[in-house]
């Protein structure tokens, strides 16, 4: 599958990075210039900061997400998206071309499995996988370069502790948390979360970046750069604008704008249930065979 399709999935799944917190409230500013605090917060305080936002944002729904994509020098028509997510693993994003009403993308997750479908992919099947198969190493390849648990973390809806898993790097204007994890193929990845050292005000982000780095090659796999946030300390904070980058093959960049976000809405659980498509088979990523097929299936047309 071409990585532009993978990056569209990545764009949707990263659409909610950003956080609010507590310890920056004691940092003062003078003449609107950021002042770096004399005392650096501990790793435990930074992780607590992330967890507090996740506790406030139990779920969000947004029916007005604009997604602009560029692959290399080639722009892709703007997509209009509906997005919903709910802790711990409920997620759904459906996208249509802004100039048409036909559905182009369907990505979802619940406690048992995740799935995705890209209409314009060279292999426009509905792919799915159980979290159990993923955890037990039965999935040899994923079309998007990250683990599902990291997806929920970048949504602001994860569980970030314990703090012992992180290393803190202090820079003049940034605080950087780094955690080492295993990728789906057993490779080591670095998850990096970048904070501004001064208190963010208004729509400025406190958490500015989420990065995923291949530790062996030191190459960036994907990144989310938060440009503008929305919400408050009572509801939690999520991005209003975010720029995404995937560098697996041809460089792909995306900008998402989330408007009219609902915080902690009531959502039917049916929203997070996979429905097989009438237009083609549903392929299990653990076996690369259609759902319900036995071992004798011939994988014609599949890679």
Describe, in plain words, how this protein is organized in 3D.
It contains four helices and 16 strands. The protein has helices spanning 3-13, 43-56, 131-135, 148-154, and strands at residues 59-71, 74-86, 90-97, 103-109, 113-118, 126-130, 166-170, 174-182, 188-196, 207-214, 219-232, 236-246, 252-259, 262-263, 282-284, 289-290. It has a 16-stranded mixed sheet that branches. The longest helix is centred in the first third of the chain and has 14 residues, at 43-56. The chain starts with a helix and ends in a 13-residue tail after the last strand.
Largest sheet: 16 strands, mixed
Mean pLDDT: 79
- Strand tally, please? 16
Name the helix and strand elements from N-terminus to C-terminus, one letter apiece.
HHEEEEEEHHEEEEEEEEEE
Percent of residues in helices comes to 10-25%
Entry keywords:
303 residues, mainly beta, outer membrane lipoprotein receptor (LolB), chain A, 16-stranded mixed β-sheet, 41% strand, disordered C terminus
Write the layout of secondary structure elements.
Layout: H1 3-13, H2 43-56, E1 59-71, E2 74-86, E3 90-97, E4 103-109, E5 113-118, E6 126-130, H3 131-135, H4 148-154, E7 166-170, E8 174-182, E9 188-196, E10 207-214, E11 219-232, E12 236-246, E13 252-259, E14 262-263, E15 282-284, E16 289-290
Parallel strand pairs: 6-15
Antiparallel strand pairs: 1-2, 1-13, 1-14, 2-3, 3-4, 4-5, 5-6, 7-8, 8-9, 9-10, 10-11, 11-12, 12-13, 15-16
